[in-house]
């Protein structure tokens, strides 16, 4: 049975769970979350965001059945999106032509971030066990680009971006080795750095002063590099660096502070320089519990139902728009034939929305 909104509603929750279990992800699964135009899920926080909301475009749920969706990368030549399902140790493939969702690679060495290089090849951060950055060649063979720095193993390569000169930049926090849910627990051997792989294969530690750097992206002119600091103080933050002609990063400046206890994660930049950021609760608890059914319960400082989605900031760091989702968005990518379809990897599911913006890269 094809997945349509009509038969999903008729199934009920038990039927839906059964339908998406097993190999149901190979079926078409578009679900429109809201029927009204404009979609109330797309919130304008500043008038400047109005031009990016398409009046007759709605948030669509394209696929589900993952445990933690991450690292989407779009391949325009073939018209498909790859994204990681980290705890299930696989990379998934959404074909936007056939509207199918299938396994691309399993096992995948607990892949996290993915990117397309300038020659159309897949770059992957394998963030546990192998703890390396790889390139998938056109014949399917895998080339290891980086797995050690100064003789010691990398921690857990997380997110990756490819600059126009072909250099590959990635973050190396601890998430893939600090437990056994998204890989295998292990002791770190490095500081949590941001690295650059040059065309000759040399690995350089470009940024060394961030605690667990996460998502990263360049401004449209590539003169600035933005990096999420997962352990920012007092909140998660995005820092801006000036990028020199020699590939160095300097003039560290805080651009965004998630003061609402939002969980800044992966993000992308559009051609106007706006930052489209995966968002959700950072899990911080209130200092004092409340009584619930006779039990003391510590609530979240930032509630998931208020924060889950995509927060859009202008180049000055001001929030201008919010796309509300029923699940926390970890990362996203611009895709579609015209680069204006926003794909959102969100906890268990993949969502999409056509917007009046195009990705910068």
From TrEMBL:
Keywords: Hydrolase. Pfam families: SGL. Residues 68-348 form the SMP-30/Gluconolactonase/LRE-like region domain. SUPFAM superfamilies: Calcium-dependent phosphotriesterase. This is SMP-30/gluconolactonase/LRE family protein. It comes from Phyllobacterium phragmitis. The lineage of its organism: Bacteria, Pseudomonadati, Pseudomonadota, Alphaproteobacteria, Hyphomicrobiales.
């Amino acid at each position: 049975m094809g997945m349509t909104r009509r038969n999903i509603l008729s199934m009920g929750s038990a039927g839906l769970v059964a339908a998406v279990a097993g190999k149901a992800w190979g079926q078409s699964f578009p679900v429109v979350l809201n029927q009204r135009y404009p979609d109330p899920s797309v919130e304008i926080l500043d008038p400047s965001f109005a031009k990016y909301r398409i009046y007759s475009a709605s948030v669509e749920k394209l696929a589900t059945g993952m445990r933690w969706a991450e690292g989407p990368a779009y391949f325009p030549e073939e018209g498909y999106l790859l994204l990681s399902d980290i705890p299930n140790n696989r990379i998934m493939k959404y074909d936007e032509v056939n509207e199918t969702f299938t396994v691309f690679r399993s096992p995948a060495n607990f892949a996290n971030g993915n990117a397309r290089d300038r020659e159309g090849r897949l770059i992957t951060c394998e963030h546990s066990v192998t703890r390396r950055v790889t390139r998938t060649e056109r014949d399917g063979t895998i080339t290891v680009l980086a797995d050690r720095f100064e003789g010691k193993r990398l921690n857990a390569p997380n997110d990756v971006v490819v600059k126009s000169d072909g250099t590959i930049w990635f973050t190396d926090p601890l998430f893939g080795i600090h437990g056994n849910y998204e890989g295998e627990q292990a002791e770190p051997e490095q500081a949590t750095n941001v690295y650059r792989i040059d065309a000759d294969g040399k690995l350089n530690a470009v940024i060394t002063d961030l605690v667990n750097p996460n998502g990263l992206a360049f401004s449209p002119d590539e003169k600035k590099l933005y990096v999420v600091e997962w352990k920012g103080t007092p909140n998660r933050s995005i820092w801006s660096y000036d990028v020199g002609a020699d590939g160095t990063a300097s003039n560290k400046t805080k651009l965004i502070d998630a003061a609402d206890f939002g969980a800044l994660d992966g993000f992308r930049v559009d051609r106007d320089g706006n930052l489209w950021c995966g968002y959700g609760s950072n899990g911080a608890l209130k200092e004092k519990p409340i009584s619930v059914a006779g039990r003391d319960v510590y609530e979240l400082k930032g509630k998931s139902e208020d924060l889950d989605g995509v927060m859009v900031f202008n180049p000055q760091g001001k929030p201008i728009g919010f796309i509300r989702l029923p699940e926390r968005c970890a990362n996203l990518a611009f895709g579609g034939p015209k680069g204006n379809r926003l794909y959102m990897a969100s906890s268990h599911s993949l969502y999409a929305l056509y917007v009046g913006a195009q990705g910068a890269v």
